[in-house]
Amino acid sequence: MATKKGNASGSHVAKASMKDRPISTKHSIEICNHLRYKTVAWAITELENVASLKKAVPFKRFNNDMGHKAGMAAGRYPVKAAGQFLQLIRSVKANAEDLGLNASSLKITKILANKASNPFTGRRFRGSSKRTHLGIEVKEAEVKKKPVRTKRNVAAKVEESKVAVEEKKPEVKVEKEANVETKAETKTEVKKEKTGDSQ
């Protein structure tokens, strides 16, 4: 079963872990890469679809000689591992609720799978079995409020842009007038010099 871990310091983080799960470490690593930085609600629905063979998990690392699946490249249906990850995510969700976190806004910040010791079973024809350690950490995500666009806000922005454009235009005109005046002065000076030389 998953072990419960929580923070008494008041931080918005909840943890859970499972030891010596009888699942493939390679499958677990691919599932971790697929679920990392996703929301808990999305992860639960995704794993339920994998367990019912409705959707495959994309395999990006351990995919040697693996066939393509619908909507992706290499992929598989790791049903056994998906069941263990479902238990883990539901456990960390319950831990977060115990700590007073909002379960609807939980995001997976850390999820990992490590290879455990492989015990040998049997005597004469003994063989090793697969074992994997799982760990997860979720955090309460901050909900970003988007500014509400209303007709008044849009109209105010349009008026501000118009005012800014009107303020910029006179400066350009003044600069042009100054340039014209300097050119006129230089022309009159040149004409005076020519008349003086001719006399």
CATH architecture of the largest domain: Alpha-Beta Complex
Number of domains: 2
Instruction: Report the biggest beta sheet as strand number plus sense, adding barrel if it closes.
Output: 4 strands, antiparallel
Alpha-beta content class: alpha+beta
For this entry, give a set of tags.
199 residues; Ribosomal Protein L22, Chain A; alpha+beta; single chain; elongated; two-stranded antiparallel sheet; 2 domains; four-stranded antiparallel beta sheet
Secondary structure blueprint with pairings:
Blueprint: E1 3-6, E2 13-21, H1 25-35, H2 40-51, E3 57-58, E4 75-76, H3 79-98, E5 106-115, E6 120-121, E7 127-128, E8 132-140, H4 151-198
Antiparallel strand pairs: 1-2, 2-8, 3-4, 5-8, 6-7
Helix pairs in contact: 2-3
Describe this structure in words.
There is one protein chain. The protein has 199 residues and is α+β, with helices and mostly antiparallel strands. It folds into 2 domains: 3-140, Ribosomal Protein L22, Chain A, CATH 3.90.470; 147-199. The chain has 4 helices and 8 strands; from the N terminus they run ββααββαββββα. It has helices at 25-35, 40-51, 79-98, 151-198, and strands spanning 3-6, 13-21, 57-58, 75-76, 106-115, 120-121, 127-128, 132-140. The protein has a 4-stranded antiparallel β-sheet with strand order 1-2-8-5. The model has no long low-confidence stretch (mean pLDDT 84).
